[in-house]
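Technical annex, item 7. During the second reporting period the consortium partners agreed on a shared format for inverse folding records so that results from different sites could be compared directly. Each record opens with the tokenized structure and is followed by the designed sequence. A conforming record, contributed by the partner at site C, is shown below for reference.
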């Protein structure tokens, strides 16, 4: 699946990834290890969804070479990479809100670059628990920047979100658009991260790229997200929650393309100085909710039973990424259209009973 990914040809690096057992994180871990790098994974296995899914994500990211006990607080193993070099992978069960415990990890490792993917995710849950979202997504992120400052780590990739655009009237969404009007606590925390990140870049010269992800899908997708949820419910002959009239639309981005964008962002940071950039990572192809469901039905070979519901608070009407900057600055080139991406997801889902 990953042959098309950028292979970083610089020296072996030590990367710290937060959320490395999640959907996007586990794919990134897998590719960095294949490229011969060492990875420190910080993930607290939050109860947002089933712990066993993250365990499976982790095992898949390590491939058949892994065999360890998840009951340990820390796991440290050696892996034989595709370049036949012995690379190191270490997993820490750790909450990013606990700066003291994070500091011990930073003390114990030489870290070349941080990729921060961990967050409390989801628009609707953030409306129910706004203060918890602030603690994790703002304070937790700031803890990492404080530790980068203290330990002299100057390179940082951070996950932002297309949700910062809110109901932006200008289509497609560009990085230069005003994003001062978020419509959910989740979106607000992501906007705060971009602003606070600039402070650490300006004061402490931490080079960083903040990536606005647009509706990522594919193998290992979180079970709470629509494509995963709809697939499961269709196969079980259960009703799917269908919000609105089906005209809401998303710029669905396949996981392989997202990983390609992250790797190219890493390379850009490692070969450039004085960097603070916000970059859209999308597919630049807009699919309505109705079109998404039809594509799923065609791929599964089964019709959905729809439960019609009103639009939910905090949901945006449409997302559409202008990826001109990503193409120009880092050479980002998404290559998976929605129909092929859904086919790959369904094949994975059928091979991994949920």
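Designed sequence (site C submission):
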């Amino acid at each position: 699946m990953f042959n098309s990914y950028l292979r970083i040809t610089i020296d072996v690096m030590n990367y710290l990834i937060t959320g490395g057992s999640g959907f996007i994180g586990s794919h990134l871990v897998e590719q960095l290890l294949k490229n011969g790098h060492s990875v420190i994974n910080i993930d607290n296995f939050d109860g947002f969804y089933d712990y066993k899914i993250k365990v499976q994500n982790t095992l898949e990211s390590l491939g058949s070479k892994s065999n360890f006990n998840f009951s340990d607080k820390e796991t440290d193993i050696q892996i034989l990479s595709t370049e036949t070099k012995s690379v190191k992978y270490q997993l820490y069960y750790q909450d990013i809100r606990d700066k003291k415990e994070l500091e011990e990890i930073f003390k114990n490792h030489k870290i070349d670059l941080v990729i921060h993917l961990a967050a409390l995710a989801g628009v609707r849950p953030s409306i129910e628990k706004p203060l918890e979202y602030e603690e994790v997504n703002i304070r937790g992120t700031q803890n990492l920047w404080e530790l980068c400052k203290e330990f002299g780590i100057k390179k940082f990739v951070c996950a932002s979100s297309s949700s910062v655009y809110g109901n932006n009237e200008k289509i497609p969404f560009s990085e230069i658009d005003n994003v001062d009007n978020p419509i959910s606590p989740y979106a607000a925390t992501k906007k705060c991260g971009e602003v606070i990140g600039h402070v650490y870049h300006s004061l402490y010269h931490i080079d960083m790229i903040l990536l606005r992800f647009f509706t990522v899908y594919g193998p290992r997708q979180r079970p709470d997200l629509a494509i995963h949820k709809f697939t499961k419910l269709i196969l079980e002959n259960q009703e799917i929650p269908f919000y609105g009239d089906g005209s809401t639309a998303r710029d669905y981005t396949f996981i392989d393309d997202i990983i390609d964008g992250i790797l190219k962002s890493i390379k850009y940071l490692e070969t450039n100085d004085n960097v603070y950039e916000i970059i859209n990572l999308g597919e630049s192809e807009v699919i309505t909710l109705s079109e998404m469901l039809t594509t799923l039905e065609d791929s599964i070979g089964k019709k959905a039973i729809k439960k019609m519901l009103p639009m939910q608070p905090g949901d945006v009407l449409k997302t559409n990424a202008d990826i001109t900057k990503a193409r120009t600055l880092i050479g980002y080139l998404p290559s998976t259209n929605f129909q092929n991406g859904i086919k790959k997801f369904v094949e994975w889902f059928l091979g991994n009973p949920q």
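Residues 17 and 115 are 5 Å apart (CA to CA). The first strand starts at residue 14 and ends at 18. All partners now use this format for quarterly exchanges.
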